[in-house]
Design goal:
Blueprint: E1 2-13, E2 16-28, E3 33-37, H1 44-51, E4 59-64, E5 67-68, H2 74-80, E6 84-88, H3 99-109, H4 114-127, H5 143-155, E7 161-165, H6 173-189, E8 193-198, H7 201-207, E9 210-215, E10 218-224, H8 225-229
Parallel strand pairs: 3-8, 3-9, 6-7, 7-8
Antiparallel strand pairs: 1-2, 1-4, 4-5, 9-10
Helix pairs in contact: 3-4, 3-5, 4-5, 5-6
The chain binds adenosine-5'-diphosphate (ADP) (2 copies).
C-alpha cells in the first residue's frame, strides 16, 4: 500500500543543512497497522509527512496505492491526498466551527453538495461515538472527544490510509486506550491501512502489527512487534 524507497530529507537551516532522513526503505502492506517509533528528533514526523508530501523528500520515491507521489504536480497531489487522512497530536480543529462543520470541512473544500455531506458526516459521528455532539464547539469537548472529531474529519474523504502523528501523546492513559481502540476498530471495519508514529512503546504494543525503529534518520530495526520487542 505504501512503499518508501531510499527516502532522504535534508532541511536547510540558518546553521547549515540538517539531514533528517538518510535513506529510508519501508513497505507497509494494505490493511496493516504499522508503527514507527523513535526518540524526539529521530525523524518520525518528517517521515510521516513525506508519505502525503506535506514535506517533499530531497531524494527517493514514495508510492501510495500504486501512485508515485514524488512526481506529482500540486494539483495531482491535492487529489491523491484525499486517499490519505491524517490526525495530529493537538487535533488541529477549527475552534470557531462546530463538530459537524469540522468534519464537513474537507468535503466543503472539495465542493461536495451539502446533502451528500450530511450523508457522510452523520454516519461518521456515529462511528466515532459523537452523535450527540454535532452542534458543540471544540472548546466544549474533552481531549479524547476532540481527537474523535479529528478522526472523523480524516475519514470524511474516504481515505485508504490513515496517518497518525503522535495522535495520543496529549491524552491521559485511559483516553489513549479508547482512542487506540477506535483506531483499531476503524482499521478492521474500513480495511484502512494505518501508520502510527509515536515515542511510546505501549502504543505500538497495543495496536501495531509491525514496527520500524527510527534512529537518527535511519531505520535501526523493523519487523513484527513480537520480533522487534522480544529480546533474546
Ligand atoms: P521526530 O518527529 O522524530 O521528533 P522530526 O522529523 O521532527 O523528528 O525531526 C528530525 C530532525 O529534523 C531534527 O533534527 C529536527 O530538528 C530537524 N527538523 C525538523 N523539521 C525541520 C525544519 N522545518 N527545519 C529544519 N530542521 C528541521
Ligand atoms: P505536533 O505533531 O507538533 O503537535 P501538529 O500535529 O499539530 O503538530 O501539526 C503538524 C503539522 O501539520 C503542522 O505543522 C501544520 O502546519 C500541519 N497541519 C495542520 N493541520 C493540517 C491539516 N488539516 N492538513 C494538513 N496539514 C496540517
Amino acid at each position: 500500500m505504501i512503499q518508501l524507497s531510499h527516502i532522504e530529507k535534508t532541511y536547510d537551516s540558518p546553521s547549515g543543512p540538517v539531514k533528517a532522513l538518510k535513506g529510508i526503505d519501508l513497505t507497509i502492506e494494505r490493511g496493516e497497522i504499522f508503527g514507527i517509533i523513535g526518540l524526539s528528533g529521530a525523524g518520525k514526523s518528517t517521515l510521516i509527512r513525506c508519505i502525503n508530501m506535506l514535506e517533499r523528500p530531497t531524494a527517493g520515491k514514495v508510492i501510495v496505492d500504486g501512485q508515485d507521489m514524488t512526481v506529482m504536480s500540486e494539483k495531482e497531489l491535492r487529489k491523491a491526498r484525499k486517499n490519505i487522512g491524517m490526525i495530529f497530536q493537538h487535533f488541529n480543529l477549527l475552534s470557531s466551527a462546530t463538530v459537524y462543520d469540522n468534519i464537513a470541512f474537507p468535503l466543503r473544500l472539495s465542493h461536495t453538495p451539502e446533502a451528500e455531506i450530511k450523508k457522510k458526516v452523520l454516519p461518521l459521528l456515529e462511528l466515532v461515538g459523537l452523535a450527540d455532539k454535532a452542534h458543540q464547539y471544540p472548546s466544549q469537548l474533552s481531549g479524547g472527544q476532540k481527537q474523535r472529531v479529528g478522526i472523523a474529519r480524516a475519514l470524511a474523504s474516504e481515505p485508504k490510509v490513515l496517518l497518525c502523528d503522535e495522535a495520543t501523546s496529549a491524552l491521559d492513559p485511559q483516553t489513549t486506550r479508547s482512542i487506540l481502540e477506535l483506531i483499531q476498530d476503524i482499521n478492521r471495519k474500513l480495511s484502512l491501512t494505518v501508520v502510527v508514529i509515536t515515542h511510546e512503546m505501549q502504543v505500538i504494543k497495543d495496536i501495531c502489527d509491525k514496527v520500524a525503529v527510527i534512529e537518527n534518520g535511519v531505520i535501526a530495526e523493523q519487523g513484527t512487534v513480537l520480533e522487534v520487542f522480544t529480546n533474546p
